[in-house]
Sequence to fold (479 residues):
Amino acid sequence: MSGPADWRKGGESARPDAKRVVASLPLAVFTLAPDLTIAAANPAAEQLAGQGARRLVGKLVDDVFAFEEPLILRRLAEGEAQLLARDSLVRILGAPARRIDVMTSPVAYCPGWQILALSEGVGVEALSGDGGGAGAGEGTPLRAPEVLAHEIKNPLAGIRGAAQLLSRKVGEADRALTDLITGEVDRIAKLVDQMQSLSRRGREPDAPCNLHEAVRRAQAVVAAGHGGFVVEEEFDPSLPPVLANPDALVQVLLNLFTNAREACESAREPRIAVRTRFASGIQLHAGPGGKPLRLPIELRVSDNGPGIDPALRDHIFDPFVTGKKNGQGLGLALVQKLVREMSGRVTHDRDEVRGWTHFRLHLPVAGPSKP
Amino acid sequence: MKRRILLVEDDASIALVITAALEAEGYDVTRCASIAERDRLLDGQQYGLMLTDVVLTDGDGMETLGRVREAVPHMPVIILSAQNTLDTAVRASDTGAFEYFPKPFDLD
Fold:
């Protein structure tokens, strides 16, 4: 049995750092610079504002928030006092006003810096389980992402259908315009689907599966979409089955292969490589019930593209962070979410000498865990 | 004789385009926006096909398909859903739906 003292034995490395703790808070936390501009926003803050941290950073607090209670902004301007305003009406980026608990506090030992924390009391699964929490209607079958998807896709279906009906009546020259409408509708629908998969809970349990089979499936899908998809393989044939969700694993590999293909498109001789190996030294203290879990199976997807923009490297798994011109920044966020759900780990590193970018998955082995 | 289709959809714009597309193909479309209205119409009329949304004002159009199946076992049912998930597709298949169209769908 793991006792409460187990984490102490692991030393500092077993303890999550403050950044990770703040990122995991279900509370929206904005860090405000002395000039009252937003300097940082955690994922809950991004979700509340409906914008990624990259867009929020640098904006003045009163450009983002309109507080009905004038004292909140006054206290922020003074910058010295703590404040808690419960159920305060707040408009965020011009959206309709919502009742939100607002907390402000100066940051210790950093003169002028403040924390603005907001809590709407939603987004965290109710303790009572499916839809039974406060605010959920009796028997309500949907949660927030599903409602959002429904509210967006219904009008899209109407717009798409109307464009198709019009396309039957217009001449060939104008059909490009109706095609543009249907094409763009499909693009929005795809984005909504991706956002929905990022927030979806309740998947199939993990089971023993063959990693190489998953690699083959993902390769076949990418090759079907883009001819000439060649991958250099270095497989360890003696690898035991991994404990994973087969569909999630294929999705993860699909996203990694697609990224690798796009990343090295501009290289003189584009190369993508996949390697599997048994790496016995890797361990993660993240198993069910907090038990240490070994992650000895490593899969590495590499490409010889120019690499991730150094400014983005630390945030590349955050939602809405992307180095692609037309990317939404959801692919790697989904990869991280799915890998974490399988109790695994995903990392990336850059080999500047050889010019390779590596994404590594570390996964648990199926069957009884070895000591 | 025109073939009769029952469309159960509470979104007016989707109902409009589906009705227009089907009527252009010579079908006779009856539209309703709730499960209660659907059951009442099925009680009095015969339809060659039913198209139904899932999230309706008075309940889940898919969950209540069982009683439609019992009342009119031979009528094919097409599910229209904004929830493009494997779970929805499997549920549609489990309820004996003839086809499942994720929204936004292709009228062609």
Observations:
- Chain B touches chain A at residues 11, 13-14, 16-18, 20-21, 24, 55, 60, 63, 80, 82-86, 103-108 (CB under 8 Å).
- Chain B has a mean pLDDT of 85.
